[in-house]
Amino acid sequence: MYTSDKLVRFDWAIKRLLRNKADYCIVEGLLTALLGKKIFIKSLLESEGNKDTETDKFNRVDILAEDENENLYIFEIQNNRELDYFHRMAYGTSKCISEYMKQGEPYEKIRKVYSINIVYFSLGQGKDYVYKGTTKFVSLHDENDELVLSQAQKDAFHCDAPSEIFPEYYLLRIDMFDQVATTPLDEWISFLKTGDIPITATAPGLQEARERLRVDLLNDAEKNDYYRMMENLRYQRSVIETGRAEGRAEGRAEGRAEGRAEGRAEGLAEGAAQANLANAKSMKALGVDVNIISQVTGLSADAISAL
After folding, report:
1. Which of 84, 109, 145, 228 could be bridged to 139 by S-S, CB 3.0 to 4.6 A?
2. Average pLDDT, rounded, for the chain
3. Which pTM value belongs to this model?
């Protein structure tokens, strides 16, 4: 049951509700809290990721924003595990740069791209819940020797380092956040994880979000669309977790049998492989899309079809 103070998920809101200029302050608030400087959005641009239905855009939300200095911001929100998500990040920035580079323009006109990635699964290995990635040129012979721009380049490009030209990546691993919010960014991440915004929140954009994203403000069509997305997410996660649990149980049983016959080392390896196959079989039997099974298990579509 959704109460009057229940808020819609940000990933749904950002592509359904926050496309009017009056609501830019919410997206600006997240960017300001993340980047540590005030950001003003000039416009939200259309990208190929903006589909008409939830099923067209189940795994990812792409929003492309432009600030007053013509810098570009890619928002991607991923709910389900995706092994090659880092590759997707690289592809997204590369495509953005090429699409917004006019034919015949000099290279110095390349626009700065910020890639904001909000993921609800464990991506990579690390202790923190927020990571930043930049491009630096460091000497192979002296790790303290970092290549910088010449004075002429600084004057021409209005920046101090090559890293200010290349894309910047921000990775927010929402499920890793388990702390009390003490900073504006923490308050935002807490909202992204729990869907709640306390009345005492001070982070930029959150109080506006608290008013704008109330479920009871949605019209009937929006509510139906939102409830459908929530059910899809619950079902998808339930199916995947069920498949993993059944796969682990079956794999452990087969692995123990193999291990007793052929030795512990081979048994563990075989058990892991059997667990993966059993996982795939279970998800296939439950009707999970082949592409999602492939992302979870690493098996090819042909191998899954042959099960």
Report:
1. 145
2. 82
3. 0.71
